Amino acid sequence: MMMPLKDLVPAAANAVNAQFIMLDKGNPSREGHERTCLALVADGSASVHFQLWGTECEAFEAGDIIRLTNGIFSYHKTNLVLRAGKKGKAEKVGQFTMTFVETPNMSEIRWAPDPGHPKRLAVESVVSPHSRLFPPLP
């Protein structure tokens, strides 16, 4: 079952199944021996930063519709990103025809322990309603 991006909550488990469109992609950089690049992706409910690794950097372009299976939404260094991880899979399933919104950006939310459920996280505050790395489209 596909999860809307607005329902993402940071977790250390590969449990995200979602479909979204890539809006923008940053320049590749090196992280150790691996190439990485950050992208902005969105669906009809929210947007999020999507971390691409290795060959994924060349495999996807702006306008691609991507299906993520068993992905993970967690912190990578200090950035909250969605990624396939070692157990997940990202694949291109279409191009250009998908409704999306740019706000809220789930990577721009500060999370804190939920007082009612200590093992869960809840929204503490919104850092920015949109991506600070990829400014909103005109």
UniProtKB/TrEMBL annotation:
Species per Swiss-Prot/TrEMBL record: Acorus calamus (Sweet flag)
The keyword DNA-binding is annotated on this UniProt entry: yes
Domain of life: Eukaryota
GO CC list: chromosome; SOSS complex
GO BP, one annotated term: response to ionizing radiation
Family annotation (PANTHER family): OB FOLD NUCLEIC ACID BINDING PROTEIN-RELATED (PTHR13356), SOSS COMPLEX SUBUNIT B HOMOLOG (PTHR13356:SF0)
The keyword DNA-binding belongs to this UniProt entry's keyword annotation: yes
Protein name per Swiss-Prot or TrEMBL: SOSS complex subunit B homolog
Listed GO MF terms: DNA binding
Lineage of the organism: Eukaryota, Viridiplantae, Streptophyta, Embryophyta, Tracheophyta
InterPro entries in the record: NA-bd_OB-fold, SOSS-B
Keywords linked to the UniProt accession: DNA-binding
